[in-house]
Amino acid sequence: MSEVIALSHARDDSMWAVVASFGKNSRVAEIYPTRMAALADRTWREQQVRAYAAFLESGRQALPRYSVVPMRRADLPRSWKPLPALGFLRGQFF
Question: Which of 6, 31, 69, 73 sits 20 to 30 Å CA-CA off 16?
């Protein structure tokens, strides 16, 4: 019985990704095992961006948009690393 459970977990590589979009480009910012955790992270990231909105607009930078999407581990780029919420301020967005 435990072998059946182990096999089903091995095949279940689904997760939830917070995706940052900037114009036509997008990047996986972070991944989570549950949708609720991803939604909480998206909310936090949006709050961080709102806090710096005036600064970004004065520099004529577009604000990133965040969304939550289902994703498989196999779909992550090989060299993927998490994106800090304000990483785009240091030129690390893309």
Answer: 6
Read off the pLDDT of residues 54-64 as tens digits, 9 standing for 90 and up: 777 776 767 78
Element (H, E) at 68: strand 65-72
The token pair at 15 is 């997760």
Q: What's the pTM? A: 0.74
Q: Is 84 exposed, middle or buried (0-12, 13-18, 19+ CB in 10 A)?
A: middle
The number of C-alpha atoms within 13 Å of 27 and in the hemisphere containing its C-beta is: 17
Residue 67: the pLDDT is 95
